[in-house]
Structure prediction request, 563 residues.
Amino acid sequence: MEQLLDLFDFGPFFDNFDAILQGFWAMLRLAAAAGVLSLVIGTVLAGFRVAPIPVLRWFGSGYVNIVRNTPLTLVLLMCSLGLNDTLGLAFSGEPSTTYYWWAVLGLSGYTGAFVCEALRSGINTVPLGQAEAARSIGLTFTQSLRLIILPQAFRAVVAPLGSVLIAMIKNTTVASAASYGEIAAVSKGLLDLPSFASGAVPLFIGVAIGFMILTLPTGFFFGWLAKRTAVAR
Amino acid sequence: MSREANVLFDAPGPRARARNRVLTVVSALVLLGLIVALVLRLNAKGQFAGDLWSPFLEGQVWTNLILPGLWKTLQAAALASVLSIVFGVVFGLARLSDHWWIRIPAGAVVEFFRAIPLLILIFLAFFLPNKVSPVIAESPLGQFQRMTVDYFFSIFGVQINAGTIVVPAFAAVVFGLVMYNGSVLAEVVRAGVNSIPRGQSEAAYSIGLRKNGVLRLILLPQAITVMMPAIVSQLVVLLKDTALGFIIAYPELLATGFKLIPANFGNNVLQAGIVVGIIYIALAMALSRVATVLERRSRRSRKTAAKTMGTGGPPPAPGMAVQETAGPRV
Prediction:
């Protein structure tokens, strides 16, 4: 049975520890930028979808329906291969920089559609009286959205937004298909090395623990936050 | 227009109407400007050249590349759907068990597979057995390994050659999809059963049913009506996620339509992406429509004492309690 212990030889894992950590770091940089940007995109889209201007409403629902029903792999590949390589819309001449920003943009554009859906259902939970009261004291559409509706809507959807955020963190791995070298790309590169054959089990243990460290506390935090910020009605 | 649109603003008066007209024109112009800029850029890069688009008018491209890819996508999605529903029901009910030694391991499995990215799960199934099996083959477990592969995993096309296991991309994709979506569905099942009012099971116990009978005759039939929309909308996610097979070279729609076609027809990446995207969007929207219809029926249904879970209930994130909130599935 001793041979089986070879499967848990952490030597190759720690030999490549720097590369693995760099993969996680690249993933975190992507997740952080995409988290902020997708929140912005989602909020703007949600605003569009309830706006008094039909053109914006059409754009909002058209965008959400198209992006939400497209696989993320295709969205990211269209960004990297289509917009960057074919159309030459590069952010910079440096490949790693431009692929990073396209990954950020693709991931936030995709996640933004889900943020928009979450927020819209949050807007639905705000009682009619709130909006009527806001209008009756003379607030305009933008003012009532900004001061009355959205603050309550955000508080109602903390938990779904947390789920969307966690899904986004996990989705960063798909960016490895779009020429962005994060943890999934690093793992695949290591697994393809013949010299790394005995390090496969420790690698998967390490990657799994890394993701659990990122996602589980985030889940607990949003669960706690959702309870704390819930609107008492 | 939708209900909530009217909540936020009054029927506009003359000044608001004028302002809205101006804003409509401005936003239409901005959108039009963006479209024009895109079209100019496409034109500058010669993307309107006919031979980049014409492959999609040829019957052979469809019969040799797109349709076989679509078939592979649907195969993986269909098998993974069935297995993940089974996985979801088993683990969802296991998490509701009265015995801690069933409840806790089931909970750990479900939380684990929801915390790991789907792509990593697919990699796990694709690479790990191949690396690990030669070592196991040398150990006393080698015989056991060979038998499990020969008698069980060979159903999914897994092969073992001289102690080395080869997992086909199809099996790896299905494994990943089943573990992840099955875990999400387990939470849906648990939430569905929990959403049945307590009075139902109390009444069932009071007429003398046992645990098994209460679950099988009273709770599950009602829970199924409640859960159906949520299950179907999770299957939409599963269908979209088959595209991850692209990364491990499973020849599904994205691989044939977005990799092979551009490789053979002058690198028409954008055109292929648009065609493949339309197919995915049509498939996902059709399935979403089923979910919406089921939701409407479930809301009307008098076969259940509970409120429907709706198509939009978010997949509760790992570490988060299931709750009745609205939101999209991701």
